[in-house]
Amino acid sequence: VTTPTLPRPASDIYGGLEINGSGCTSGFSVVNGSGTRGITIAGHCSTTDSYQGIDLPYVAGFYGGNYDVQWHTASAFSVQNWITDGAVPYTRPITSRTFWGNQPVGGFVCKYGRSSGYGCGTINRKDDTPTCIPGARPVWLRVGVAIMGGDSGGPVFYGESAYGTISCGDASTLIYSAVDFVESGVGVTVLTSP
Amino acid sequence: MKFGIVLLAATAALLAGGCKQDDSAVNGVFFPHHSVRGPTPMAVLDGRLEVAGGCIWIVAQDGRRLLPIWPPGSHVRIVAERLELTDDAGRVLAADGDRVAIVGGETVTADNARGFMGRVEPTACRPDAFWLVGTLRSEGRASPAPSPTDGADGY
Hints:
The complex is a heterodimer of chains A (194) and B (155).
Chain A: E1 12-15, E2 18-19, E3 24-25, E4 29-31, E5 37-41, E6 49-51, E7 54-56, E8 58-64, E9 67-73, E10 78-83, E11 92-93, E12 96-97, E13 108-113, E14 117-128, E15 140-143, E16 155-158, E17 161-169, E18 174-178, H1 179-186, E19 189-190
Parallel strand pairs in A: 1-10, 12-17
Antiparallel strand pairs in A: 2-3, 4-5, 4-19, 5-9, 6-7, 8-9, 10-11, 13-14, 13-16, 14-15, 15-18, 16-17, 17-18
Chain B: H1 2-17, E1 25-26, E2 29-30, E3 40-41, E4 43-52, E5 55-60, E6 65-69, E7 75-79, E8 82-86, E9 92-95, E10 98-107, H2 110-117, E11 129-141
């Protein structure tokens, strides 16, 4: 007797998860122009990635200038417009995006990385040219909050709005890319609905 | 006048070097540095430090050979025929054959990497990808690879 098995998603995938292979954190769930969904991580992460032991095929990436992003399809998973902020088992829906032009110095943002967890701080600069980004242009945002190894690519957000993704940092500083550059770097849109 | 020329030459030399630590070849081993200070990329790489062919490699768990670009203040020395990486104070960070965990970032774009290094890598050191090293931690000496005669089943 054989029992038919139907293909089904292994589980959900979304922002803030530990991505294996690259040693990074997923950023946001995204969709491209043809409706294919996937997730972002930082452009300086390895391009060979998996989640729960299942490959996440690399599509495109960019590391330099305005950008530090890559994206992967995740057809084995149900791609959700959520992030984790560490309050397991709960997730936070992402229902909007806040672009670079609406992220003022003095604004308050939060981040989640798989190593440092949840934290928040105020934007100190929004025209930074950090040396950790090759040929950086003055579009990088700097926040006084600690991050750790493994956090790269993780989400920066406030409430239910996507602000950007983690690029560089140290024990007192986070440097992130605004969500409009995450999107334009690889030609995707952050999911803001199921 | 002569002093001015000397000062000009010294300034030009400094600018040409970008004030980089210039020990790119130490003990015959290519040892490139970057000049990133402060925040660094925050990806993590687990691998094995290996010296071969005049290059220092990180061999990733997936078998790729990555060429690390080291942070300012890191050095190499040879002790008892084994290469050691040290910091400015002479503390050993890792040695040839160690398993290491590196925080930093990967770039497959040679132009990016050469911008960080300020030079072109020797042909023998062309990698699968480059790694900009922020911090490095040794996790001890890696187990030696099994010889063909080790164990009945092998692996």
